[in-house]
UniProtKB/TrEMBL annotation:
<dbReference type="Pfam" id="PF03759">
    <property type="entry name" value="PRONE"/>
</dbReference>
<keyword id="KW-0344">Guanine-nucleotide releasing factor</keyword>
<dbReference type="InterPro" id="IPR005512">
    <property type="entry name" value="PRONE_dom"/>
</dbReference>
<feature type="compositionally biased region" description="Polar residues">
    <location>
        <begin position="18"/>
        <end position="41"/>
    </location>
</feature>
<feature type="region of interest" description="Disordered">
    <location>
        <begin position="54"/>
        <end position="83"/>
    </location>
</feature>
<feature type="region of interest" description="Disordered">
    <location>
        <begin position="1"/>
        <end position="42"/>
    </location>
</feature>
<dbReference type="InterPro" id="IPR038937">
    <property type="entry name" value="RopGEF"/>
</dbReference>
<feature type="domain" description="PRONE">
    <location>
        <begin position="92"/>
        <end position="469"/>
    </location>
</feature>
<protein>
    <submittedName>
        <fullName>Rop guanine nucleotide exchange factor 3-like</fullName>
    </submittedName>
</protein>
<dbReference type="GO" id="GO:0005085">
    <property type="term" value="F:guanyl-nucleotide exchange factor activity"/>
</dbReference>
Length: 469
C-alpha cells in the first residue's frame, strides 16, 4: 500500500512491478519497483503504524469503564468471585482493543486528509497519490515479510481485509450520472437523473476483489505441507543433502537474494498428490497474475500523460532508440520484434528497463509528429500532400512497430519494473478512482508473481532431488 510518489531515481520507488525474486519490503528504496518482485528490487516502503495505549475518547477518571468486585461477602468457595473477575478482565481487554483500533483508524484517516504532510502546511500530495501510497504501504506491511508458501497469519489477514475495505470504500462515491425515463401513475413520462458506479470501477473493482480472495485462498492451502524451509546455507535435519543456495531459477543468470529461505523436500521427494496440488496452485496464480497485469496495463493506458513527461521527449525518435534498432524497424518489410530482441542480447533487467524507456519515448515522439503532420490548414494539406503523406505514414508505422516491440519486451521480462512514463503517470495522477484501481491491481500482480516463483522453487527442489537419485 505506498503503487506511492516517492522515488528511486525516476520516481521508481513505489510504482514498480514485481521482480523475479522476492525482496525485503522493509528496505527503503522506492516509490517504484513494487513487485514482491521489485521495480528496482521490490516493494520497499517505510510504513509506521502507531496506536495509543489509551483512547482519546476514554476518560481515565471514569470508573464506569472498570469492573469492581461484587459483594464484600466472599463466596464460600471463592469460585464465583474469581469468575466475575475474569469476566471483568475480558471486558477490559475488549475495551482496550477497541480503543487501540479507534486510535489506529483516526491516525490513518488523519494522514489521508493531510496528504502525508505531517506539518499541516498544505504541502502534501494529492488525494489520489495518498490513497495509492496507502494501498502500497499496506501491502508491504501485510505481505512484506511473507517469503514462504504458508497461510497468512490471522491478524495480518484481518488487517488486510479490514483496511482494504476502508480504502476501497471511496469508490462507492465515485459515480457517473445518466438520464432514465419514469412514468407516473397518471401516465406522465419524465426524465430523471440517476447515478451509478463509474464504468471503469464497476467493471474492474469486483474483478480485483475476486482475485484478492483467490490469492488468499491459495496461501491458505499450504498448511501441513510435505516441504519445509531452511535458511540459506543451512543444513536441514530431515534432508539428505546440504542446500547452500535457493533453488529459484532466475532468468538471465540473475543472482539470488541471499536472505531468501530455501525450500527443502523429503529425501524421497514429494508425493504425487502434493506435486499435483503445487502445479494446480501455480497455474491458478499464473492466471491471476496475467489478469491483474492486464487490468493494471489498461488503467495506466487510460491515465493522462503528464506534461512534464511530454516536455522531456526527444526531438528525434531515431536518436532516442539508436541507429541499429531504427534501421531494422524502418527497413524491415516484415517487422519481427522477437527477432530484434534476440539480436540485441539483453543480459539484465536493468538493460531491459532502459531499452523500454527509450522505445516508449520514441513511440510517443513519432505519434506526436504524426499528429502534427495532420494539423495543417486545408490549403497547406493540398499543397504538401505528396510529401506529407509519405512522412506521416513513416511516423505512424514506426510508432506502431515501437508499440509492438515494447509489448514483446514486457512479455519477455514479466518482472520488469515500471517504466519512466508509468511512474510519471502515477505520480501526477489526480483521478482517485484510477489511483485505487492501479495500486490495487499492482500489489495483487506482485503477490501473484511471488506465489508462482515460490511454487517454482519447491518444484525445482523436488525435480533436482529426483534427478539426482
Amino acid at each position: 500500500m505506498e503503487k506511492f510518489p516517492i522515488s528511486e531515481g525516476n520516481f521508481r520507488l513505489g510504482f514498480l512491478r514485481p521482480s523475479s525474486s522476492s525482496v525485503d519490503l522493509n528496505d527503503q528504496s522506492m516509490i517504484s519497483e513494487a513487485s514482491g518482485q521489485s521495480p528496482a528490487s521490490g516493494y520497499s516502503f517505510p510504513y509506521c503504524r502507531t496506536s495509543s495505549d489509551a483512547s482519546a475518547f476514554s476518560d481515565p477518571t471514569d470508573d464506569s469503564s472498570f469492573c469492581t468486585e461484587p459483594s464484600p461477602a466472599p463466596a464460600p468457595t471463592g469460585r464465583g468471585t474469581r469468575k466475575y473477575k475474569l469476566a471483568g478482565q475480558d471486558k477490559l481487554d475488549d475495551h482496550d482493543a477497541m480503543d487501540s483500533e479507534v486510535e489506529m483508524m483516526k491516525e490513518r484517516f488523519a494522514k489521508l486528509l493531510l496528504g502525508e504532510d505531517m506539518s499541516g502546511s498544505g504541502k502534501g500530495v494529492c488525494t489520489a497519490v495518498t490513497i495509492s501510497n496507502a494501498i502500497t504501504n499496506l501491502y508491504a506491511t501485510v505481505f512484506g515479510q511473507n517469503l514462504k508458501l504458508e497461510p497468512l497469519p490471522a491478524e495480518k489477514k484481518a488487517m488486510w481485509k479490514r483496511e482494504m475495505a476502508c480504502l476501497l470504500s471511496v469508490c462507492d462515491y465515485i459515480v457517473e450520472f445518466f438520464t432514465e425515463s419514469q412514468t407516473l401513475q397518471d401516465g406522465t413520462a419524465l426524465e430523471v437523473m440517476n447515478s451509478r458506479a463509474r464504468s471503469d470501477i464497476y467493471i474492474n473493482l469486483p474483478a480485483l476483489q475476486k482475485l484478492d480472495m483467490m490469492l488468499l485462498d491459495i496461501l491458505d492451502r499450504f498448511h501441513n505441507t510435505e516441504f519445509w524451509y531452511a535458511e540459506k546455507g543451512s543444513m536441514s535435519s530431515n534432508s539428505t543433502r546440504s542446500r547452500s543456495g535457493s533453488f529459484r531459477g532466475l532468468p538471465l543468470g540473475k543472482e539470488e537474494k541471499w536472505w531468501l529461505p530455501v525450500p527443502c523436500v523429503p529425501s524421497c521427494g514429494l508425493s504425487e498428490k502434493s506435486r499435483k496440488q503445487l502445479r494446480n496452485s501455480r497455474d491458478c496464480a499464473s492466471q491471476i497474475h496475467k489478469a491483474a497485469m492486464a487490468i493494471n496495463s489498461t488503467i495506466l493506458a487510460e491515465m493522462e500523460i503528464p506534461e512534464s513527461y511530454v516536455d522531456t521527449l526527444p526531438k528525434s525518435g531515431k536518436a532516442s532508440i539508436g541507429d541499429t534498432i531504427y534501421r531494422y524497424m524502418y527497413s524491415a518489410d516484415k517487422f519481427s520484434p522477437e527477432h530484434l530482441l534476440d539480436c540485441l542480447h539483453i543480459t539484465s533487467e536493468h538493460e531491459a528497463l532502459e531499452l523500454a524507456d527509450r522505445i516508449e519515448a520514441s513511440m510517443y515522439t513519432w505519434r506526436r509528429k504524426a499528429c502534427l503532420s495532420h494539423s495543417k490548414s486545408s490549403w497547406e494539406l493540398v499543397k504538401d500532400l505528396m510529401a506529407e503523406t509519405e512522412k506521416g505514414d513513416k511516423n505512424t508505422i514506426l510508432a506502431e512497430r515501437a508499440e509492438t516491440l515494447l509489448l514483446s519486451l514486457k512479455q519477455r521480462f514479466p518482472e520488469l519494473s515500471q517504466t519512466t512514463l508509468d511512474t510519471s503517470k502515477i505520480q501526477y495522477n489526480r483521478d482517485v478512482g484510477q489511483a485505487v484501481l492501479e495500486s490495487y491491481s499492482r500489489v495483487l500482480e506482485g503477490l501473484a508473481f511471488n506465489l508462482v516463483a515460490w511454487i517454482e522453487d519447491v518444484l525445482f527442489a523436488d525435480r533436482s532431488l529426483r534427478n539426482q537419485d
